Amino acid sequence: MVKVTYIEYNGSERVTELRAGRTLMDGAIDNGVEGVMAECGGLCACSTCHVYVGDAWLQACGEPSELEEGMLDFAADLQANSRLSCQIQITDAMDGMVVRVPERQY
Predict the structure, then answer these.
(1) Average pLDDT over residues 63-81
(2) Which CATH architecture fits 2-96?
(3) Three-state SS for 34?
(4) Residue 106 predicted with pLDDT over 70
């Protein structure tokens, strides 16, 4: 199992354990993380699963696809570490990862 910590905008932390192969979005939904709505169900057709990936974990997540980059244009409060959680598949190398949920998704 891979430990991932989601930090909601209000500062609440949700420490989760996810199986490799699932997505960050799956972990957020399964654990009731506030602000990750995932309205498209993980099809990369909206930006309601937008998160900020901790800088130390960006390389482990790989580069966003062209489709993801296009969908991020619709997300509020973009930062250099913005990603769509539906597009990040959990690997063992992500154990300890920390992600934050943007304020404007609440």
Answers:
(1) 94
(2) Roll (3.10)
(3) coil
(4) no
Q: Which two tokens stand for residue 91?
A: 């690997």
Q: What 3-state DSSP class applies to 27?
A: helix
R_g (Cα) of the chain, nearest Å: 12
Q: How far is CA 99 from the centre of its chain?
A: 6
What pLDDT score was predicted for residue 105? 66
Q: How is the beta sheet containing 82-84 ordered, strand by strand? A: 13-18, 2-7, 97-100, 50-53, 82-84
* Structure-token pair, residue 105: 């998704």
Is residue 47's pLDDT more than 90? Answer: yes
**Which one, of 85, 44, 102, 89, lies nearest residue 68 by Cα?**
44
State whether residue 13 is helix, strand or coil: strand
SS3 state of residue 88: coil
User: Do 90 and 71 meet the contact criterion of CB atoms below 8 Å apart?
Assistant: no
